[in-house]
Amino acid sequence: MKQTKPQKLRLGLFVIIGTIIFITAVYLIGQRQNMFNKTFTISSYFQNVNGLQRGNNVRYSGIDIGTVKDIVMINDSTIQVHMDIQEKIITHIKKNAIATIGSDGLVGNMIVNIVPGQGSAALISNGDIIASYSKIGADDILSTLSVGSENAAILTSDLLKITTAMLEGKGTVGLLLNDTIMAQDLKQSVNNLKMASKGATTTINELNDIISNLKTNDNTVLGMVLNDSISGQKLKNVVNNLETSSSEIEHVLTNINSVVEDLNSSEGAYNYIVKDTALVNSLRSTLNNINEGTDKFNQNMEALKHNFLFRGYFKRLERQAKKVEKEKEKETP
Amino acid sequence: MTDKNNIRSQLKSFLIEVGDISYFTKRFFTEVFKRPFEMKEFLRQCYNMGNRSLLLVGITGFIIGLVLTLQTRPTLMEFGAVSWMPSMVSISIVREVGPIITALVCAGRIGSGIGAELGSMRVTEQIDAMEVSGTNPFKYLVVTRVLAITLMLPLLVLFGDAIALMGSYLVENVKGNVSFMLYFNKVFDALEFGDIIPATIKSFFFGLAIGIVGCFKGFNCSKGTEGVGKAANTAVVLSSLLLFIIDFIAVFVTDIFYDL
Fold this sequence. Notes:
The complex is a heterodimer of chains A (333) and B (260). By secondary structure, chain A is α/β, with parallel strands linked by helices. Chain A has nine helices and seven strands; from the N terminus they run αβββββββαααααααα. Chain A has a seven-stranded mixed beta barrel. In chain A, α4 (180-216) crosses α5 (221-227). Chain B has 260 residues and is mainly alpha-helical. The longest helix of chain B is centred in the first third of the chain and has 40 residues, at 39-78. Chain B is built from eight helices and no strands. Helix content of chain B is 88%, strand content 0%. Chain B has helices spanning 2-32, 39-78, 85-123, 126-132, 137-176, 180-190, 193-219, 225-258. In chain B, α2 runs parallel beside α5 (137-176). The interface between A and B is medium-sized, with 23 and 24 residues.
């Protein structure tokens, strides 16, 4: 049977599509295993790799950046994990990055998580060894739980002892539970407290009444202040007036101050009189001169009285004075 | 005593058949590299076995992907692990379900076809006529068919896998609102070379087994129409059995190599 052209075409198409599917699948799988990417190798030391295998993913801040290349036992407590990391990520990982081993989800494959370190550091390069941090594994959690449950057992036994002692009436709490007299006293105390609180309530109510009376009664000063709008207005006016008066007083005081200042600072008579000591001395000497002059004038006058030219005049004056005295004596019985 | 003789004769005939098939296989490998190459017949067989089986393989694969996802979904939902569906389905389809289902479908369609075709040719003495006319019937009929199914089956498996994954994606998209990108990202995240390469190599052996058994049964068909039916029937049964044996060996070998 001869084969037709469409048959050949269909066969060719079938083979090509099948091959493309195979190549695509191989490429996609290979790409995920970093077979077609340029990679560099870094490593880290762990004490326990928790079932990590070759080919497990390596993540940096949650992004798949490579795979575990090899796991080598260095000594009885140290395991070196080599990781193939995509070269394009080299610009982001620093030398102080920390590798931890975790799992992808609760029941997922083990993965190596690389987390950025604190502070600044140089970029990582091929063959570098980064620090590692061992997370708490399931075994550690179980051992912690075991310790916790042991503690809980001890705690429960202690609690049992305490409750037994309490029931037997030992200790303060046991006494509280078992002593009937103390219970009676406590009851009495509670009653007293109840009464005291009742009294306090009454007092508070009375105080409330007083305050409300003060607030509502217009005849009291506080009521008037709080409720009477006219009085309030008057008070306001008074305060305004006081304010005005105080400002005027202040103005006057300012003026007085300026006058005093002028008096003190100017070159007027007052300042001259108050402050010039030479003038005082000169006045004092002038007064002394006047006193001396007056004494001398009195002496001159006394001399004049005894002078014959003026003696008659002074005698006449004496006689007139005696005459006025006599008339005054006559008038007064 | 009769039973013992019966068992002995059956064992003897079984061993003879195994020996015959081995010689037949040896002859195939000897003839395949010898000239002349029957290229036209080979391409015709490729078309018949590859293209014409595609629809059947596609439908089977699609339904398998669909059903596998639907059946697994409730169990995974109980564990809150539905997001693992693409990984689980892809690994099971690529590693095992895809190759074996495709091979079984091809064993039914192609193995029986080869057995019946060659058997009828033997019965109607067409093969003898070819020998008389100077044409090598083994080269023309057997080598072309075995080679065609050996090369076409891996391609059919790849098509079957792809269509089964599409069926699985359809269910995930409808029931879980999973996007195409996310589904196939998870599929290829889960797959490794250890899944796809052994499965592809295994498919070549599946194809070889179907072709050899079908051709052997047809080529050595006994006289009469009954013999043709028997040849077709035993070709399917024996090739199906061989498929599982090869599958077991393949898984065993893969396990040894990938656990090293």
